[in-house]
Each structure stands twice: as structure tokens, then as C-alpha cells.
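Quick question, first post here. What does this chain look like in 3D?
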Amino acid sequence: MTKLAYAGLALALVALAGGCSSGETSRHDPKIYRMGESVGTGPLVYTVLDTEWLDQIGDPASPRLPRNRFLSVLLTVTNSGPATSGVPQLTLADSHGTSFAELTDASGLAEWLGFLRSVRPAETLHGRILFDVPTGPYRLQVTDDADPENQASATIEMPLELTRPQIRTDLPRRK
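> Answer (accepted):
Ran it through. C-alpha cells below.
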């Protein structure tokens, strides 16, 4: 083989190895979005605005209690496509990879989006969805409803944020 042939072979191997490497990275390390970022999956664009841990929902006289703890997720879903789109049931994944489905009944939760929901073109839904999960950080898996066989999906990281009671320092002291 000539020097030119060796150089061409070496260049081809480098290009092939580089192409394989970048393909593996993108398949195994998908982008993780943060709360507050707009995340597009097909025609649907999701934005997680807030999370709240709840010990109960509904009427305080006869509350609905969770098996673990309720995690309420405040989000918006915008349809950027030309046709009405269904908003599918969403799931959470914990740090061990365990998945938890959105509750099908969150009656008693303020601003509940409902379970069967659709969004018209250029319309935005704003409300809450509910999960019954152990306390911890989670990743919300969001998807579109356009093509079930080639469903676009994305992941939104939701760190654990527990609110602490405020200690008031402006109260008069007892004597």
C-alpha cells in the first residue's frame, strides 16, 4: 500500500470511530431539562412551573390521604401544532429508575387539569397533575400524543424542595 492509501484508511477509521462515539452519547445521555424551561415533544410544549408536597387533598373535614405523599406538579402545556392534540398521562421516575403513573383521580386538588384532556392549536392548558409517591427528587417524563409508535419524549428534573415553616421573629416576647 502507498502512503496515500494508508493516510486515507487512517482518516476513514478516525471518522468512523468519531461518528460511532457521538451516536452512542446522544442515545444514552439524553438532555435533562430543568423546571421553568420549555420542553417540546412533537407539537406539545411543556413547562413545569412548581411542585408542592401535600399530606392530603380535598375537604379538611373528610380529606383524601395518600399512600405515600402527594406530589402536585404545576405545569403548562401548549399545542404548537396545526391540529388538536391529546395530552397523555405523564409519569415520574425516581433515582432508582422506578416509574410512577399520574393519578387518574385528583378530585379535590385545586387547579387539577383533569385526566382526559386535549389542547387546541395555539392553546395553552395551565394547571396541576398529581402523583402519590415517596418523598424525594424525581424526573417527569413528558410525551406527545401524535404518533404512539414514534412518540417524542423528554425528561424534566424536579429536585426535592420541601418548604419549611416560617419562624416569626416579629412577635412580642412573653415575660
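Confidence is low (pLDDT under 50) at residues 3-29.
Residues 1-30 form one domain.
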